[in-house]
C-alpha cells in the first residue's frame, strides 16, 4: 500500500521549528533541545516524522552557516518538502 503524499513546510522560528502540513491542515512545533513535537505521534512514540524532518533541515542549516563562515557562496535551499 502506497503512503499518501503530504506537503510539509518547515520554518525556523528561533526557539524551535514550525512544521505545517498543507495536506492535512495541521501545524506542529518541534524543538530539538529538549526533543519535543506537539503532534499526537510524538506523545505516544517519542518519535515522529516532524522531528526527522527538522533534524535534516537543522543539519542543512548548520552546514550552510558553516560554509558562509568559510566565505563560500551557498544558495539557500527550499524548506518545502513533499513526502511519499
UniProtKB/TrEMBL annotation:
<keyword id="KW-0479">Metal-binding</keyword>
<feature type="domain" description="SWIM-type">
    <location>
        <begin position="28"/>
        <end position="59"/>
    </location>
</feature>
<keyword id="KW-0863">Zinc-finger</keyword>
<protein>
    <recommendedName>
        <fullName>SWIM-type domain-containing protein</fullName>
    </recommendedName>
</protein>
<keyword id="KW-0862">Zinc</keyword>
<dbReference type="GO" id="GO:0008270">
    <property type="term" value="F:zinc ion binding"/>
</dbReference>
<dbReference type="Pfam" id="PF04434">
    <property type="entry name" value="SWIM"/>
</dbReference>
<dbReference type="InterPro" id="IPR007527">
    <property type="entry name" value="Znf_SWIM"/>
</dbReference>
Amino acid at each position: 500500500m502506497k503512503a499518501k503524499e503530504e506537503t510539509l513546510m518547515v520554518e525556523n522560528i528561533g526557539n524551535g521549528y514550525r512544521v505545517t502540513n498543507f495536506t492535512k491542515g495541521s501545524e506542529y512545533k518541534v524543538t530539538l533541545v529538549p526533543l519535543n513535537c506537539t503532534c499526537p505521534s510524538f506523545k505516544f512514540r517519542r518519535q515522529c516524522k516532524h522531528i526527522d524532518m527538522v533534524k535534516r533541515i537543522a543539519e542543512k542549516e548548520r552546514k550552510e552557516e558553516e560554509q558562509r563562515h568559510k566565505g563560500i557562496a551557498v544558495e539557500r535551499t527550499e524548506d518545502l518538502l513533499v513526502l511519499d
